[in-house]
Amino acid sequence: MAWRIDEALERGEIDNTVEGKTVGRLWILGREEPVLLDLAGDCWRDLAGSRLTFRNPAPKPQASMDLAAVQQGVVGDMTASRKNKVPLVSDEEFAAMYAARQQIPFCWKNTLYLEWFSERNGRVVIETCDFELKLSDHTWEMDDDAEEAQKLANMQAMRDFMNDLVRRIEPADRKVDDDGEEDEFQWEERLKESDRLADAYQEVLEKYLDDPDAERKEAFAMGWDGLLEALAEESEAPSPEPAAWTPEASGDEEDWDDDAEMRQHPLQAKAQDVVIRGIDLTRAGDEHPAAAVLNSALMQVAGKLAGALNGDYERETGYVLAMLKRCLGWQNDALAACSELVNAAAGDPDHFRALEALRDSIFEIREEIVNLRKELKNN
Questions:
Q1: Do 273 and 147 share a structural domain?
Q2: Domain for residue 335, yes or no?
Q3: How far apart (Å, rounded) are the C-alpha atoms in residues 292 and 95?
Q4: pTM for this one?
């Protein structure tokens, strides 16, 4: 994931007065010496050929500021005129309005966006509209074609970074047994790859969130060339005539078949019930920090068990084993969080007993997961 360092920055400078090379210095809170930038490539046209200095009026410490002292690599998008949506309310008001599903007022602002791809630290981003900026005169001018070429190079750098982050396993590298199935450990690698893919896509979504060409750029960065081709064909094809409305097309007259309903596995049903109980027991206004951990872990278990066990079609055994193994980890997190809540509720006998019962149910589900894994391994 990207290193986002704007909060900890005290001040800095970006110098692109030499065409094809961008250098700079960043003074970070708590570090005596500045971090040096030595990057190949140019900024966007508003900064190309100039020297930008900036100051953070309210720096504050950030975790994980272990950046290499010299940042060597290539530039990403570097501009002081990126358009971003900025809420017109405080963080507290934003959270309250979001929770109440209210429309949040915002405005468009020019945002300082400095991105580069470091050989040591990967993708690093400074994104803010709060810094004080000062721009020098331009020593050389970038034209439209040069800027477009630089933006394409930046997109390619983002694509290369995403590919390294995901580290996709090629189909030829996957080993299967005589039945054409992969074992638990191979499925675990596939699930880890899926997690990396989800993290990478989230990073791409954040980068291109407000971009009018977001869909195409996201597809390119993720390496989804098939989707790129489909988008290109769609943009070239004439718009189809809207189809006439019918009850059948809208689903108003669907004839549901009871036999076609998804079968719910008993273990997943228990996990789902525990999720509801956990939410009910932690709904009090003065919520303990462990409550969020508890509910998140329980929801993960219920969701993953649904994918692995529910329905009438048969999954590969290795896939089910890998998912059950992950569920054990979340169950352990839930047990630890529930124990914290039990200890915190010692002064409320009714709540104390309810949380103890919930902990017992979590432990029972954990035992059933362990037993199901043993059963599957023995078959």
A1: no
A2: yes
A3: 16
A4: 0.59
